Hints:
The chain is of the alpha/beta class. Helix content is 40%, strand content 22%.
Amino acid sequence: MHNIPSVILGANFYNALGAIRTLGRRGVPVYALDYHFPTAYALSSRYVTEKVLCPDINHNEKELADFLISFGKGFSVKPVLMAAADNYALMISRYAEELAPYFRFPAMPTGLLEKIIDKKGLSELARDLQLRIPITYTVMPGSDSDHIAGNINYPCIIKPALSHKFVRVFRQKCLYATDREKLMEALNTASTSGLEVMVQEVIPGFDDRMYVFDAYIDNHGKTTHTFSAQKLRQFPINFGSSTFTHQYYDPALITLGREYMERLGYRGYGEIEFKKDPRNEKYYLIEINARLSTLNVLFDKCGIEFTYIMYRDLIGDPLPEKHLTENMPWAFWHAYEDSISIFSYLKTKQLTIYEVLKPWFEHRKAHAIWAGDDIKPLFAFARLILSKIEKRLRRLFSKQEAAR
């Protein structure tokens, strides 16, 4: 049954690369789609059966949906469709009825994905379903900013309803405010983007208070596979993605994660990020990721291949149930981003050299990009980084010349 192909949307990030490798190593044909080949370094993987240029989802979502329908008609058997980014996951959800005759994907309850990915929707869901989250206010046109500034706990963050749109504007996932003045300034900055934003208290504690719960829930609502991990470092520091994260079994976290997924009625693969509050040792839901995970390579090393688990379930040949209930020596490591983060942690005195090196030597590494059996993506990624450095140097020299 492995002749049933898979289609992965988005190839410009290492979560897509990890999924491509997982499926390719299992002998699954992988069709990788992206709208900009020069930055889609995952396309250089030896496990890509065919790379496909598709419409830019950022410009026209419906055009991509129409393209996929046409593309799907070319297969003799329905492929499994997977999203490597939030915007692709949203598109699949919005056009689920039109795409269903041509692709296999989890039967998510109507509208659930839109609420989960939209931070405002997630906040409303949390309130309705009694999921524990930090104190949160939605800031809409006409909102009383003074009231919010006077009632929120500091420090706090200003984050978007839709992350991928906010990141395109501000080049960061959120804005940070340590007091009322900074919050009002940040709200004024955010309002210029025309995006709906939210103000949320920051749960205290270092980045190692961040945990993730990962699960696969089949179409009958049964949680068949579970996994948990603890972040140790992030990029950007304090409010970013994992750069060094180790597998960590916590039965309380697993129980809470399963309970939350069941309340949501979630289907397919999903990941919940929690932060553990040192004031009461309770877990607070931070966000839910409904696309392929950045920790994909860590899952594989620990024997919980969520990408393959989803593939097998959707083709009607599910893998046996498995729940990881032991601690293993593996840690996810993104060498490039982690090196930048380490510099920032040291500069801000959040970590010492010893605290940086100790966990690094204690774990075996699940590399974000490097793989001995698939080295071309590493060179493709390196070319992108060198290109960015070259552009920055050119801008710097141009400014210096102009100043003269």
